[in-house]
């Protein structure tokens, strides 16, 4: 399998994501539903604390990937939804992405501010698409 991370020179250089990711030769595509800051018992972790919720949602994303033999490096597209998004919220998301993708080549990514999520008290939801050889 070959992944290419492309950032066209005519587009502003990205910070924390890649503009285009191509995948050739993947045998398995993995579609991960939005992961949120909920523990195994269904309790919201870090209620009212966006940074804590991003950390827990990222941990849940890693666990979901691991359940099918994938890891963050296999992610080719990620969407993040943040309730009542403000520009200062971006720093917490960048920290989480740095932990998920420490070797560089982050996936194509979209961050979307939303009014609310499925459950009151949730502040962030992260969904991903991964490709496995």
CATH class: Alpha Beta
Low-confidence stretches: none
Cα distance, first to last residue? 5 Å
Strand residue percentage? 25-35%
| Largest β-sheet summary | 4 strands, mixed
Number of strands: 6
In CATH, what is the homologous superfamily? RutC-like
Cα gyration radius (Å): 15 Å
Portion in helices: 10-25%
Instruction: Name the strands of the widest sheet in spatial order.
Output: 3-6-4-5
Number of helices: 2
Mean pLDDT: 93
- CATH architectural group: 2-Layer Sandwich
What's the helix-strand series?
EEEHEHEE
If you had to describe this structure to a student in words, what would you say it looks like?
The protein is of the alpha+beta class. It contains two helices and six strands. The strands form two sheets. Strands 3-6-4-5 form a four-stranded mixed sheet. It has a two-stranded antiparallel ribbon with strand order 1-2. The chain is globular, with a radius of gyration of 15 Å.
Summarize the structure in short.
The chain has 133 residues and is an alpha+beta fold. It has helices spanning 50-66, 90-100; strands at 2-6, 20-24, 28-35, 75-83, 108-114, 124-132. The protein contains two helices and six strands.
Keywords:
133 residues, alpha+beta, 60s Ribosomal Protein L30, Chain: A, 4-stranded mixed beta sheet, two-stranded antiparallel ribbon, 2 helices, 21% helix
């Amino acid at each position: 399998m070959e992944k290419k991370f492309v950032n066209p020179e005519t587009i502003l250089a990205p910070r924390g994501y890649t503009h285009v990711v191509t995948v050739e030769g993947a045998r398995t595509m993995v579609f991960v539903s939005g992961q949120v800051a909920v523990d195994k018992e269904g309790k919201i972790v870090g209620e009212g604390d966006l940074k804590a919720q991003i950390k827990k949602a990222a941990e849940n994303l890693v666990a979901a990937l691991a359940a099918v033999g994938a890891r963050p490096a296999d992610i080719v597209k990620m969407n993040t939804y943040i309730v009542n998004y403000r520009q200062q919220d971006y720093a917490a998301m960048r920290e989480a992405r740095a932990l998920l993708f420490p070797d560089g080549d982050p996936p194509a990514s979209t961050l979307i501010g939303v009014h609310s999520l499925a459950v009151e008290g949730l502040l962030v939801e992260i969904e991903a698409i991964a490709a496995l050889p």
